[in-house]
Amino acid sequence: MSMQSDIHVTPVRRDIPEGGLLALDTVTLSRRHERMLAAAMRPCGGPAFWRLRKQREARDFLALAQVCGRLAVHELRLGEAFQAVAYMEVPVPCRPDETGRLRIAGGALIGLTYREEAVRLPAPGYAFANILAPHDVWHANVGGAEHGQPICLGQSMPAAIPLRELVLLIYGALSLQTVMIDERDVAGVMSADAARWWQQNLHRIPLTREPFIRPIEKGPAQEEARP
Amino acid sequence: MSASSAGAFETVVPTSRRGRAARVRVEARLPAFEGLSVDAPAALAGLRLAVVGAGSIGRNIVEKAARLHVGAVQVVDPGRFKPESLLTHCSLEPAEVDRRAPKARSAAEMAARISPATEVSYHAGPFEDLGPAALIDADAVLMATDNLAAEIAVAQHCLHLSKPLFHAAVYGEALLCQLRCYAHRPGRGPCLRCGLTPDEEDLLNRHVAFRCTGVAGERAVENRAVAATMSTAFLCSLAGDLAMNQVLRTALRLGSPVTDCQIEFCGYTWRTTVSPLPGRSPACRCDHTPWRVERLPGPVERRTLRELATRADLPGGSGGGSVQVDALLFVGLGVCPRCGLRPVRRFVAVGRPAGACDRCGAPLKAHPFFSSRPTPLAELGDVLDVPLGPLGADNAAGVVIRGADEGVLFRRQANGA
Predict the structure, then answer these.
(1) Residue A152 domain-assigned (yes or no)
(2) What is the CB-side half-sphere exposure of residue A7 using CA atoms within 13 A?
(3) Is there a contact between A124 and B340 if contact means CB atoms under 8 Å apart?
(4) Domain range for residue A146?
(5) What is the dihedral of CA A192, A196, A198, A203, to 10 degrees?
(6) Which of A7, B1, B89, B151 has the highest local Cβ count within 10 Å?
(7) Cβ of A79: how many Cβ atoms within 10 Å?
């Protein structure tokens, strides 16, 4: 997997399904996403139930990217685990500069992994997503770069949690709409230094109140550039 | 009593194989069972059992297996004794509670004292730490834990290896002992995960918690059972005895086979009920694929994955499947504290350093996103042609090559080659 961070969300026509996120399967995939899904399905391995599940999750994930207006899927792999690299437009807190001023990145390149055993058993909240860029995230629930910046989404994720819910949790966590900053709690805080800093800066929480699904702007819909 | 390490298991070596215990022969008290058609002492001496969970039920199973002079017992339990263990664990000395001894080691040492001829080994850690070949030699697996997640992992393991599984449990409030017997015949029969009720599913999600320290490879699973199993010592030992009775019947072919069923004994009604277990569900999230077991051809460190994939001869060839070596991770990229992401491309034990940075020599940590288990063969490229030794798997006990609906477990030769 490459780690380019110069990815931006390409504006596409966004048709939010009537059933909301539960109706992602009714969203017509763009041609690019269709091709991406077909390419990822070719080496799709594992037992039948897992192949089917990966296919469904991958389709939902691509549909979610089209619907939300803040997610660009860069890579998709279904060989064994479900793996994706996606850029999410979300304010991301980065380590304060020398003057102590918090820096905020406009988005994060996220490595998503959904393993087969997570369908059968509850999994740790840090087992699903790693922030691949920026490299200096300053967040109580994001582990250090030496551990690959895993983002902790909770003490335990229930077995077979839908991927779309994980994506929403990631957005909520990065934007600090949901955050756990009690550094004494071993089951949530991955950076005690950042947790203490945020306790002193509660007024900055959340970084945005924007919902994950961006409201559709008035005016002519923008079409995806098709080759 | 001393211990030596054999992979993930520690082997218990009795201080003497010449004492009084060693002179006792099982025939001295073994009944002439009705309908017995096999050489019972020989059958028992050849019987190899794995016991997962060495608490109040599992400890009793280990003890009774040792008193039958079975050939081998493997014990797995991550826990240590608490003062309350004295209330439910049979044959437990207060001194062991005082020093918070690991349950697995304590049970294994007890078995070795009772039957010095029995090969006894233990793993005082979670079952999930063990690789796919860990229980390969067991003729039957007995399970008695208070951890539903671990039980599902054990059942999944037994399904792949087509190992019979005996699941013993108690419900103290109703004076109820329960034994579920899974035959795990390839491709059919009930599966523990298939049979979970919605309540059990909910319990599974509520009872497991993880600590963030797990991200650094430390043990991270916590069993948040709302309350400890409430029962009595006699009910727990009765559940263990029911399990051992089934094992004995199966090993000595006594009576008609009792498989794929649930046996319940209720102390209130004084009734025993035998009922069939529910069949496999098409919606089950367990991998029901049975694995073929083959010996690794020659020394493991000289074998390449391409060779094994070819030997496995699974549909789709080496490009369509995946590989797992013991419980090792395949680490594509590691994190260097100075140089950032650096290539690793070898197998690494969870929580261990992933080698040294090729630029500055600093120790690398596995990057979770670029580490996998199992790993698609198609993503391994030139690694497929490198012998397993230089790939960090020189001591591998088992390599699984898995295709879409089949799998092959290559196990190390018995002499370690």
Answers:
(1) yes
(2) 23
(3) no
(4) 20-204
(5) 160
(6) B89
(7) 23
For residue A49, list chain B residues with Cβ-Cβ distance below 8 A. 283-285, 287
Cα B187 from chain centre = 21
Other Cβ atoms within 10 Å of A85 Cβ, number: 22
pLDDT in tens, B285-318: 888 889 999 998 888 889 999 999 999 988 755 4
User: Do B147 and B76 form a contact (C-beta atoms < 8 A)?
Assistant: no
| Domain count for chain A | 1
Provide, as residue numbers in chain B, all residues whose Cβ is less than 8 Å from the Cβ of A160: 285
Dihedrals phi, psi of B178, to nearest 5 degrees: -135, 135
A219: pLDDT confidence band, cut at 50, 70 and 90?
A: very low
Look at residue A211 and tell me if it is in a domain. Answer: no
Alpha carbon dihedral B209, B214, B219, B221, in 10-degree steps, equals: 10
B354-359 contacts: CB < 8 A, separation 24 or more?
A: B355/B392
User: So where are chain B's domains?
Assistant: 2-276, 291-411
Q: Residue B131 in contact with residue B156, Cβ under 8 Å?
A: no
Q: Indicate the pTM of the whole model.
A: 0.88
- The number of C-beta contacts closer than 8 angstroms across A and B is 122
Residues of B in contact with A3 (CB under 8 A): 341
Q: What is the pLDDT of residue B3?
A: 52
**B335/A47 CB distance under 8 A:** no
Select from A120, A136, A190, A191 the residue whose CB has the most chain B CBs within 10 Å, as the one to mutate to test that interface: A120
Complex ipTM value: 0.87
Q: From B367, which residue of chain A is nearest by alpha-carbon distance? A: A148
Average pLDDT over residues A138-164: 92
Low-confidence ranges of chain B (pLDDT < 50): 5-6, 218-219, 225-226, 318, 416-417
CA-to-CA distance for A214 and A182, rounded, in angstroms?
A: 30
Q: What's the pLDDT score for residue B210? A: 65
Give the C-alpha separation, B344 to B362, whole Å.
13
Report yes or no on A6 lying in a domain: no
Residue A24 in domain: yes
B369 and A1 within 8 Å at the Cβ level: the answer is: yes
Average pLDDT, chain A: 85
Inter-chain CB proximity A80 and B367 less than 8 Å: no
**Residue A192: which pLDDT band, with cuts at 50, 70 and 90?**
confident
Top-confidence residue, B144 or A186? B144
